[in-house]
Design brief:
There is one protein chain. This protein has 279 residues and is an alpha/beta fold. The chain has one domain: Uracil-DNA Glycosylase, subunit E (3-Layer(aba) Sandwich), CATH 3.40.470.10. Helices cover 43% and strands 13% of the residues. A 6-stranded mixed sheet has the order 3-5-4-8-10-9, sandwiched between helices. Strand 9 and strand 10 form a beta hairpin. Helix 3 packs antiparallel against helix 7. The chain starts with 5 loop residues before the first helix and ends in a 14-residue tail after the last helix. Bound molecules: uracil. The site of uracil (URA) has 12 residues, from helix 6.
Length: 279
């Protein structure tokens, strides 16, 4: 094998990446450490590359300083919101949202629970930990994506299953904040987890999440994938149900032009008792 000068490698790599970008490819996989090598091309190639490749997101989408300022102004307004007195009295924190404001994918949930209320961050409790695992299984870090809820304050009554659902009035009051977040972030894909999140954004829908999941919908011209809420997966953890949810996430990856490895494509399949039984 002949060695190639670093400058040629660099030019070839850039040419290849530009070509992929023109073709609509938005992600390439790199093994950990390869990014540094690509950036400098000065260090000798590593003798060993770890076997699990990490994704590199190639996103040219940048948020302008004006939009950043608008996002901060929105955040300030939401954190000071006192529209729902009963929730203001109960809450410890307003849970605005977290993540990359330039993200091409946004996850939307229902409302903060006790942990989220305590920490001021969405999806940090048990359901949140599962959502984080799902996000990571897609090849993202949690900080790569944006996560928000329909309701920014914790509903003030607990039920046997945890939070009560937000009322239609609470959702109508709070929803403009989520709408503004989406308008500013302009994700290419929204994943709405659970019936309440889907109906919060698309109130005219009548079917339940079991029928809605897996079918692309649209919110404000943005493709929206409804899927199961992670807390539902924690309570009804059949492999078949997890696989369905995973298929929804695979669809989101494909919509974004992300590469899907064989391993990712096959998650849960080998554990299904009889694949022919799934409908
Ligand atoms: N469930 C949600 O829908 N959102 C959270 O932030 C936490 C749990």
């Amino acid at each position: 094998m002949t060695s190639q000068p670093a400058s040629d490698l660099r030019a070839d790599t850039l040419r290849y990446l530009e070509q992929q970008k023109r073709r609509g490819v938005r992600y390439v996989r790199l093994a950990p450490g390869q990014l540094e090598e690509l950036e400098t091309f000065s260090a000798p190639a590593r003798a060993e590359t770890p076997s699990t490749p990490a994704p590199l997101r190639i996103s040219t989408k940048e948020m302008s300083p004006e939009k950043k300022a608008a996002f901060e102004a929105l955040r300030t307004r939401v954190l000071a919101c006192t529209k729902c007195e009963h929730l203001v009295r109960f809450r410890h924190n307003v849970v605005f949202g977290v993540g990359n404001v330039n993200s091409e994918i946004m996850f939307v949930g229902e409302a903060p629970g006790a942990d989220e209320d305590e920490q001021g961050e969405p999806f940090v409790g048990k359901a949140g930990q599962l959502l984080t695992k799902m996000i990571q299984a897609m090849g993202f870090q949690r900080s790569d994506v944006y996560i928000a809820n329909v309701l920014k304050c914790r509903p003030n009554v607990e039920t046997a299953y945890g939070n009560r659902k937000p009322t239609p009035e609470e959702m109508a009051t709070c929803l403009p904040y989520l709408r503004e977040q989406i308008q500013l972030i302009q994700p290419r894909v929204i994943v709405a987890v659970g019936d309440t999140a889907v109906k919060g954004l698309l109130p005219d829908l009548k079917e339940g999440i079991t029928r809605l999941r897996g079918k692309w919908l649209e919110y404000d011209n943005i493709p929206l994938m409804p899927t199961f809420h992670p807390s539902y997966l924690l309570r009804n953890a059949s492999i078949a149900t997890k696989r369905l949810c995973w298929e929804d996430l695979l669809a989101a990856m494909e919509k974004l032009g992300m590469p899907v490895s064989d391993k990712q494509r096959n998650y849960f399949l080998s554990a299904l008792p009889n694949q022919g039984d799934r409908s």
